[in-house]
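User: Show me an example of a complex going from sequences to structure tokens.

Assistant: Sure. Here are the input components:
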Amino acid sequence: MRAKDLLGQHGEALAAEFLETQGMRIIDRNWRCTDGEIDIVALEGDILVVAEVKTRRSLDYGHPFEAVGPAKLARLHRLASSWCRAHEVRALRRRVDVVGVVDDGIGQPLLEHLRGVG
Amino acid sequence: MGVGRSYCVALVGLNGYIVEVEADIGQTLPSFVILGLPDAALNEAKERIRSAAQNSGIPLSRRKITANLIPASLPKRGSGFDLAITMAVLCAANDVRSIGRTVFMAELGLDGRLRPVRGILPAVMAAVQAGFPDIVVAEANAAEASLVPGAKVHGYKTLARLAYDFGADPKDLVLDYEPSETDTAEDDDTTGFPEPDLCDVSGQGEARRALEVAAAGGHHMLLTGPPGAGKTMLAERLPGLLPDLADTAAMEVTAIHSLAAIQSSAARLIRRPPFENPHHSATAAAIIGGGSGLPRPGAASRAHRGVLFLDEAPEYERRVLDALRQPLESGELVIHRSAGTAAYPARFQLVLAANPCPCGKATGKGTDCTCTAMMRRRYFGRISGPLLDRVDIQLQVERVSLADFGSASQEEDTATVADRVLAARSRQLERFAPFGLEANSQVPGRVLRGELKLPPGTTRVLDIALERGALTARGYDRVLRLAWTLADLDQTDRPDINHIGQGLGLRQAASAA
């Protein structure tokens, strides 16, 4: 279990760095509530971005994006609302992004970023 | 990334329509959607395409793929769209170069193999007609597709090979190919077993003559006679007497059989007239064509330009027999179903066979027959008057006598009779060229009593029969048609009184029963 968690943490760190280079301001990481966890909360201008990071060592078991199904998307939207309530933020425009990280530990990690996945 | 485009053909009956396939790759989570009235088999294409592309070394984009089949209102079915969708998607992802006006028609195997589909011939005909001569099909369909004049057909074994030719990066492609079981199956001759020969029939001089007349003029036929008299044997020998199909007819027949075939792909045109012999338990849908969604051709259409033989005709449901009246008149079947309307050609020669009564023994004196008059009447009553009215030749076939049975060897064979039939047919073609007709059986009464009017002296027998009410007006025309065929077989320019008499005999032989 440790290996997979380490990989996830590593991926999230890479993703956070990447999002910052894209001009986003990271305001929270690994925020948890009873409903689940948000990997990254960031601001792009006045838009609140809730980002889900998926990390894989290889494509043998599918692309990281394929692991984000409709159920997970719905939960991310719920979590975004929960985060806003918990931090007493409102009237923000919200968006859910997904960052896919493929890192085999040898070559350059491959990052892909999908904005506003619905 | 963007929009890719390719072309395919959707078949509605035998009519093909060019379908434009658009594929778009959207910047969002992975999914695959096919729009434009796909049926279940076509929706399964998503999974086939994903696997085939993966196993060919050109995996599909990990984004949202939307494939749109235009026009969206046209119902599309089957697996033949697999390849066109794949190429459009690969084009959208810039994995292959732009496709232009090439039409793709093949099913994909999970390993990236191209598999043959049904109805390639009519589809390619439609594509060429619509101005899309470049066609890519599975290797196994290439011979059939090439039958269409003007088609530039490219047969491929695998998706990888095809992608390579369309400029895909060869370093990722899986180009080696393992032949499958079905590849190695011999491409058997589509003509199948030889047609049965007329010299196998012993005796039955009158019936042979009637068969010859039927073949020469394209007349429909009813054979009545006791079991074992050789009705089936005679009927099976009719297609052998018919001349080879001309180019357009051969194309029509091959197209229908391409659509109706479950698996095999035609390697050449069907040149011999087909013979269809459905069992009498057949439903109207089996004979006429039908099925859910878009209707498929039935036995009547498969017998187009050939012979439809209904053995034990009174055992068929009356509904089924009467459904044949429309194609007998128009030579076409138009079938309506939920997903659309299909028109299939059905210009067949009908041969009906029946026992004289339910027990089959009412022949000669009929002393062995156990049927009541009522039973007999009901038995024949199932073949309705309007249907029988369209049958020119109504012949009584008697049991073979011992004398005929012994001397089987001197009978004429199919080739000899077929030569006479061919000569008679060419006379008819020549005569009817200005009318746009082909055979005596198709001549309308207007022409028979107009341009082809015979002198009153010749037709006197008929005129009297008509006056007495022994012959209907339609029956009158039928006898004239038979007389013309008899004259053609005798190589004379017009029928004489003798031909009229023979024609009357062929028509009335059965009604004596």
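The lines above are the inputs; the final block is the predicted structure for all two components together. The beta strands of chain A are 25-33, 36-44, 47-56, 93-102, 110-114.
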